[in-house]
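hiii so um. not sure if this is the right channel but i have a protein structure encoded as tokens and i wanna go backwards to a sequence. like what aa goes where. can anyone help
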């Protein structure tokens, strides 16, 4: 059984599973309880980060080939149904590949450097069902760098509101149990403090095959609330 200690100036109640306290402040006895709510929902949008990387002893050739493959990749994304304003360049770079240290085999230290060109774009999809086909189309067109696939919600507010409602109901339930066990009466609700936790599940991969299966899974939105009641 949980222990209850009653003193002249107030009551302190501790429940191991759900911390609650009763405090006296400004001649008002208060009961403070915490509640939690959780909502699980399937994501309805996706973000894909992919691009093209090319290498050549000539900087011009590396950049030119990169531009050709990236243009074909973007064309494939557009053909897959992604609107142009949902495709954005994330990064572009052109530089030399770090050279390895000379080895005993006699590798020439003055070997001509390799240039590497990298162009990365971020594409937003308004659904999750087409992610696999979009990735396949991009790879077929020339993309050789798939950096990230992530999932999210277009509008998480309804789920956040539901999680908060559940958290408040949980806290109210606990307050009722605590007050009854302590032999006190719940009075006015003096204060509400809330918080949210928004979990976005993401998957990453380096390469994809034809008919790539991509599972968005579920997302979890949590809310926590602290209620402060006056008691008598």
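sure thing!! here u go:
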């Amino acid at each position: 059984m949980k222990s209850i200690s009653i003193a002249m100036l107030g009551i302190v109640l501790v429940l191991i599973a759900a911390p609650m306290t009763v405090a006296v402040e400004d001649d008002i006895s208060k009961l403070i309880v915490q509640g939690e709510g959780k909502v699980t929902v399937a994501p309805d949008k996706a973000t894909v980060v992919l691009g093209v990387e090319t290498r050549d002893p000539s900087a011009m050739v590396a950049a030119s080939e990169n531009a050709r493959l990236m243009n074909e990749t973007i064309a494939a994304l557009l053909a897959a149904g992604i609107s142009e304003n949902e495709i954005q360049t994330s990064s572009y770079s052109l530089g030399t590949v770090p050279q390895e240290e000379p080895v005993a085999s006699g590798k020439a230290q003055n070997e001509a450097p390799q240039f590497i060109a990298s162009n990365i774009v971020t594409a937003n999809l308004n659904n999750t069902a087409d992610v696999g086909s979009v990735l396949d189309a991009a790879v077929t067109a020339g993309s050789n760098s798939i950096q990230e696939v992530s999932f999210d919600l277009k509008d998480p507010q309804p789920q956040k509101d539901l999680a908060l409602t559940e958290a408040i109901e949980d806290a109210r339930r606990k307050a009722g149990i605590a007050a009854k066990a302590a032999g006190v009466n719940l009075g006015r609700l003096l204060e509400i403090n809330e918080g949210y936790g928004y979990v976005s599940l993401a998957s990453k991969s380096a390469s994809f095959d034809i008919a790539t299966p991509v599972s968005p899974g579920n997302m979890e939105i949590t809310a926590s609330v602290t209620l402060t009641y006056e008691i008598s």
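oh and Helices lie at 59-79, 131-141, 157-182.
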